Predict the 3D structure of the following.
Amino acid sequence: MIPLVDTHIHLDAPELQGTGINLLAEARRRRIDTFVVPGVQFSGWQRLVDLAEQATGVYAAPGLHPAYAGQWSVQAAQQLRVLVNHPGVVAIGEIGLDGAVGPPMSEQEQLLREQLQIAISAGLPVLLHARRATGPLLDILRELEIGNKVGGIWHGFSGSLQVAQQLVQLGFKIGVGPILLRGNARKLPQAVSALPASALVLETDLPDMAETPGTLLDVACKVAELRGISLATVAQITTENAGRLFKF
Ligand SMILES: [Zn+2]
């Protein structure tokens, strides 16, 4: 089996107290060897780039999470425009809209639009975060033609096959994570079974959704079971999809 790619793992999360990098050895033992670490807060961007420099197979996706839209400033925008030129930076993330936390939607939308423009200028794909905001986020992606211009991943997807198909049509990949392993998951298994293979990528969203990086392998096994294909084929497909998007 070729090694897997974790397209969304917060190795720098404060909860891990600086030990995120120690998880890589365990991940590699379980045949996971490439990791994309998304940004959350402005203060964490330098750490992301440091991680990408320190560890083989680790790539950074700096960006401001919508919950922290209040941290956006001229200085932050400037720093992001500089960071996109770093060789370890493969995407802008995680960016989007969050209807449950953070500043008012108008402020989140303004931030999202500015970060999407930076992604377009840099020619980098985006890692999208959406909570209780699927419709508004889809509208902005459609309006700015992000899928055609740079593409990206709708991270932590949990929606219906119908929404997934719209995203695929718009040029996005579906980030399949540990939600798939929940016994009560209904919509996501349907989407994972029916979507074109070229749309699927894997993620743990550790530490929020997984405690160990090996959970990615459990997600991959579940995808194999749902689609009636081998784990090796899932690895082949999802690793190729991630490689083509991020240009590792
Ligand atoms: Zn995340």
